[in-house]
Amino acid sequence: MLRPYATILFMIPADPSDDPVAAASPFTASDVLAILRERGWLAAEPSPEQHGWCERAASMLGGRAADRTALADLLGLVFQYDAREIISRVESHVVLSRYAARDVLRQVALLLLDGAPLTSERFKEIVTALKDGMELRGRELFHPTRLALAGRAGEGELDRVILLLDEAAGLSFAVPVKSARERILEFCSALD
């Protein structure tokens, strides 16, 4: 039985090791570390915290990536973020021109302003608040959120990218990672 799209978001586990997709992931923390080194996102030997993050990234993203290039692309969304460049894309204008897109972004920004880390549970609460308060579903709700936080609109793999942001932002990678709060603020500022 296929589940409605909105339900899939709520299936993202708080602990990636509980994820049934994780077992199917052909990638390991070593693969993620290799990509980070190749791209210049990891300068030295990883700390235990960075290694743990790489394990979670492999678990959460690996089953969603068709190959190593796709995994590197998803990881790039964590380490590279420029709101002005994102907004300049034609596909971004399509998302932003849809019904209530800017209202969704304002509400996401308000919900992220408190600065609390964006965990799986908190992300679920934000989505629930948006659904209840705005009575929106599907792409009208998820695409602007994913665009602002992950850097592109798309499917559920981007929700997993979003869930990796705040933890990565708290670690000392060679390239600073912007938190979900920093990203939504930058995105909203670049809109005006």
What's the SSE blueprint?
Blueprint: H1 5-10, H2 20-24, H3 29-39, H4 48-62, H5 68-79, H6 83-88, H7 90-96, H8 101-112, H9 120-134, H10 138-150, H11 157-169, H12 180-191
Helix pairs in contact: 3-4, 3-5, 4-11, 5-11, 8-10, 8-12
Explain the overall architecture.
The longest helix is centred in the N-terminal third of the chain and has 15 residues, at 48-62. The protein has helices at residues 5-10, 20-24, 29-39, 48-62, 68-79, 83-88, 90-96, 101-112, 120-134, 138-150, 157-169, 180-191. Helices cover 66% and strands 0% of the residues. It is globular and about 45 Å long. It has one domain. Helix 4 (48-62) runs antiparallel to helix 11 (157-169), helix 5 (68-79) packs across helix 11 and helix 8 packs across helix 12 (180-191). The chain has 192 residues and is mainly alpha-helical. The protein is built from twelve helices and no strands.
Quick structural summary:
The protein has 192 residues and is mainly α.
Key structural traits:
192 residues, 12 helices, mainly alpha
